[in-house]
Amino acid sequence: MATACSLLVLLLALCAAPSPAHGARVLTPGAVTKAQQQGGTGTASGNNATADEYLAPHNQARAAVGVAPLRWSPELASAAAKTVAQQQRQGGCAFADMGGSPYGANQGWASYRAKPGEVVASWVEQGRYYSHANNTCAAGRQCGTYTQVVWRRTAEVGCAQATCGTGATLTICLYNPHGNVQGQSPY
Fold this sequence. Notes:
Probably involved in the defense reaction of plants against pathogens. Residues 1-23 form the signal peptide. Residues 49-183 form the SCP domain. Keywords: Pathogenesis-related protein, Plant defense, Signal. It comes from Paspalum notatum var. saurae. With 187 residues, this protein is of the alpha/beta class. The protein is 34% helix and 18% strand. It has six helices and seven strands. The strands form two sheets. Strands 1-3-7-6-2 form a five-stranded mixed sheet, with helices on both faces. A two-stranded antiparallel ribbon has the order 4-5. Strand 6 and strand 7 (169-176) form a beta hairpin. It is globular, with a radius of gyration of 15 Å. It starts with a helix and ends in an 11-residue tail after the last strand.
């Protein structure tokens, strides 16, 4: 387990998304459903995850810092599903370049079939490195996926997963409005 966690941290450092408004987190598979690929319901991956499997851990983290809960957005879930499906087909389940997106984004990659709540929990876990008092992240650490989860002005989220040919899972959550605005505190 310690080796998997070390690999997780190393891959996170290597794969962080380029824009501060978009986070990435690697964990150490669920295929996108046909409904998602066609802009359907917003349930995630082949394990038939529900919106609540994503919302519950998001909203638990937000409640812990006194921020209003997020609403599930079928439109954002559909956009996330299209993105993970594209990455599954074209990018070998690599992180998507979300730099041109109007939404905030968190991405997670796991070498196994990760559950939605587990992926969100990995993003929230970064909160231990975040100092609200001075709005900074500990040296050498990443906090962007955590701060996007708890960003006060963000009102809605939509997520999806894809299973890669290797059995790995790619998860993307999109946030509207986006967080991680430079110089602003998340809450």
